[in-house]
Amino acid sequence: MEFFNKLGQKVSEGSRVLSDTTDKLLEIADNKLAINRLEAEIDEIKMLIGELVFKNYLGKSVPPALIQEKCEELERLFQEVARIRGRLVQMKGVTYCRRCGSQVRGGDSSCQTCGYPIV
Ligand SMILES: [Zn+2]
């Protein structure tokens, strides 16, 4: 985990310097990397929440505040992913479904994957 955080930071620091030379593609790749990193973190927290809930079910005392805290952390990560996706949309000129995250073609009134209306 720590290793991947550091790796991600190094890569994004490196990309940041280069993107100063206005390389849009690198900036997009950088954002995609950040999303991948966040999604890996999201998976880990989901798993942790699952373990805590199961421990609770087994009668081992798990402080509800701990589960609450992890859920809030998860929500923050989801928001961060949405924020970065929003930036990618601006850079690439495409949009993503706000419900399922699928890429939406310009001009579509609803998501081709889940049918959610595009505003
Ligand atoms: Zn969708």
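^ zinc ion complex. The beta strands are 95-96, 103-104. The chain has a mean pLDDT of 84.
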